[in-house]
Amino acid sequence: MMKGKAGKVIRQLTRSNTNVAASVASKSESFANGTSAGYIEEMYLTWMEDPNSVHPSWNAYFKQVQKGAPLGAAYQAPPSITTGAVYKIEGSVGGAAESSGDISKNVEQYIALENLIRAYQVRGHFKANLDPLGISEGPKSFAITEAEDAARLTVPDILAGADDKVFNLPEKCHVGREGETSLPLSEIKNRLEAAYCGSIGVEFMHITSQDQKEWIRRKFENPEARRITPEEQKLTLERLVRSTKFEEFLAKKWVSEKRFGLEGLEMIIPCMKTLIDTLTQLGGRSYVMGMPHRGRLNVLANIIRKDLDQIFCQFDPKLEPTDVGQSGDVKYHLGASVEQEINSEEGMSHETINHASKELINVSLCANPSHLEAVDPIVVGKCKAEQFYRNDDEGKTVIPMLLHGDAAFAGQGVVYETLHLSHLPFYSVGGAIHLVCNNQIGFTTDPRHSRASPYCTDVGRVVNAPIFHVNADDPDAVVYVSKVAAEFRQTFNTDVVIDLIGYRRHGHNEIDEPMFTQPRMYQAIKKHKNVLDKYGDSLKEQGVVDDGDIQELIAQYEKICEDALAKAKTETKLEFRHWLDSPWKGFFKDDQGTWVAEKLPDTGVPMETLQRISDAISVPPADITLHGGLKRVLKGRAGLASTKTADWAMGESFGYGSLLMDGNHVRLSGQDVERGTFSHRHHVLHCQKKDKGIYLPMSNLSEDQGKYTVCNSALSEYGVLGFELGYSMVNPNSHVIWEAQFGDFANTAQCIIDQFLSSGQTKWVRQCGLTMQLPHGYEGMGPEHSSCRIERFLQMQNDDPDLFPSDWKEADFGIKQLYDANWIICNPTTPANVMHVHRRQIALPFRKPLILMTPKSLLRLPEARSEWSEMGPGTQYRRLIGEEGAASKNPDNVKRLMFCSGKVYYDLVKERAARGFENDIAIARVEQVAPFPYDLVIPELEKYKNAEVYWVQEEHKNMGFYDFCKPRLRTASNWSRRVHYAGRDSAASAAAGSKQVHKIEQDKFMNDAFRKGAKGRLYK
């Protein structure tokens, strides 16, 4: 039901349809009796699209109703209509004068024809022949019945017997060939059936743009537009041979291997190739693809054109990888990237017809685990970054192509999250092409049990995407839909969905028995001829090819496969770096992913740089009216700068700003990142008097600085973190940061963290420098606003806690640790360290994800300040900050050495002073928790050789850092020192929901930290 004024009008009309009809056609009793509520609603919706599309009397009536006139007073009768009068209706066929009765009937018939045409446009897809197996009872048998289907496309009674009557074609109907302005009703129906009820079902009337709807009408209703030439058919046949025979070759050579083949949907390959060809003709130059495992090997072989020997060697159990330290992933999860020659005139990739004009296109397929749709936002983010570096503001040259399974497209929430980004300013890529590989089953689940919507593609309606359903056993229809989808995307820069409906010839994998759960479907599949044979027969009947042509194509491709297999057995080595989906040319000094460095880099900056950044973030812009509170914030920053000290916000700004001034691109994304969740950042200043009047201080640092993008995201973690991961993959010299509103909100992005960040380099040889900022700290804000669940990140750290680092004294130990780590986990407590850790991400000669805990209370804590000198030349990130107070002067007398991380340090220092233990207790802060800084911890342990060793944390014992740090502290002491614990007791919830309970817990663990020890030297 429509909302707002339009909905109100429809409700008025449908409740009072008899009166409406009587008033509009006062002299036509039959017209009044034949008017139904649904009929009037259809006519009103048609009028809203185009007032001229309905009869003038209805146009006048609807205009009055829209202005608020009462129903009885809205109608204004045309002055020329009188009983017995004769006149000619404008647009009627023939020149004879007509009586008012004839006019009334003509009006009824034209309106009925308009509604019939609209019914085909809106509902024709329900009647289309979309199931190759012929067993489907509609898009979903319980969603729409066959009877309803038929009724909605039945010719109205008023048109009964009028098949031979010639009608002028309405403006929004394009079934006429060139020069045809009128057709018999029967021919109009036939052409509408061909347009909307054949092998293609088009869903597009939900789109709000009239231009887009009109464009689609012309593409499908015009009989001339849908023609496929014999040359195109031959090319489709060749591609279909490759697609089909590749699967048959694998099935023949590796009978018992899982490969998740395309059998039943072999047309995916010609479909994708046609998309690329058409997009390339329209300006496309780079295609970033993402897909699940089904069909991936075929796509790698026939779209990416990965060397077949590299694919085949993945099946050889005797081959050992040559990449040291890489575990790899299964062959149907891997990605790849390749540049291909194309002919710019013909737009053909691979099958180059004419070599007179060549260009390069890049085609890449992103690696993806079995979490089927997890790659979607990564692909879109990668496209956004490529568009940024190509200055492709409209998204014409870099295009995302996403392949989906039918069950996953309907069932996985990240699909919606990704679609929802499509029109957001800092996330839009000008539309993605979504190709749903619909095999009519999800693993073993019937569609009736896996979704509530008629089609698996209904989520695409949310973003006004046109949806083209097409029968995969009709190659010509698939090719046409592919061309239209590509043209639509390039014309309107928005998402488009192709629902390629086929089947799955085997079970979920090639060794499954599908008859267990789908006996009816697989009985039909056993009898069903494959699409290559069917299409070959069709082309032979048309005289496009003969049997010899087909056999020659098959023989040529089979030889290619046999030659590649022979090479795989004798020459090919399994090297995972060949499967990079995002190669960074020239970044690694030997292009092998290794590093060359002797020590951790200095990340300090000149004082002039700090001063310039400080000035930029402290001085109010002249042409922006700021909120009074912001003026105070900027004034406070200026005051800090005058004393050459920095708080957290300033330290962070120094990190970002100095990278920008070095020419690096910095992108900060997440929920409320412009001001910061806790109002500390304010990197986008909003004018209080002018809408959209904004000022970015960090974008005005120097003339040659890098671009700073700071963007509030949709309320999404899974989708947006995946997007930023994809963005970070393109250029190693970009600093890409995703910030959670609260640290534990990253829970809903766990799939990205587990599958891509923690293990991406090991599985796919893909380094990544993405930074995750996770606010963390216990301030009595409850279990959802305290912990970023750091224990989960630490649990996935790849080092061995029991392995004593014999090389800990070596100069390169710290950087070697970082290189060997799967990621870096830091919990800084000073603004200086915040600056350094961001700069280090770019200064390192390799890239690792950074899990960065950020504070809440420390943002404004007076003690959490840094001198500018700590950020000047020759300084670097301090991985561990040892005791620097009174206890460090007499280490032999220190009774207790406390290790901690994060905000709790300031609580401990305050408590130590209150209890008078400054000389008795040393406190060391672990600022880089992983990889564990043995080279700094061991000297600290040796320095306080008489002290008891404690790990103190504010997190619960079964959470936080304790389980990670305890064994490493034991290893660092060569297993000679016991590690005591002080902190909250184990619990199920991350924190207390009551501030009172929080305070009780805080007091208790502070008492535990300073309680009487084994040697009796301390007391409460």
Describe the structure.
By secondary structure, this protein is an alpha/beta fold. The chain folds into 4 domains: 4-78 and 91-196, no CATH class; 230-579, Thiamin diphosphate (ThDP)-binding fold, Pyr/PP domains (Rossmann fold, 3-Layer(aba) Sandwich); 607-776 and 827-871, Rossmann fold (3-Layer(aba) Sandwich); 880-1009, Multifunctional 2-oxoglutarate metabolism enzyme, C-terminal domain (Rossmann fold, 3-Layer(aba) Sandwich). Helices cover 39% and strands 13% of the residues. It contains 34 helices and 29 strands. The strands form 7 sheets. It has a 9-stranded mixed sheet. Strand 21, helix 30 and strand 22 (850-854) form a beta-alpha-beta unit. Helix 12 runs parallel beside helix 18 (475-492) and helix 15 packs across helix 25 (718-728). It starts with a helix and ends in an 11-residue tail after the last helix. Belongs to the alpha-ketoglutarate dehydrogenase family. Residues 646-861 form the Transketolase-like pyrimidine-binding domain. It comes from Oikopleura dioica (Tunicate). Its cofactor is thiamine diphosphate. This is 2-oxoadipate dehydrogenase complex component E1.
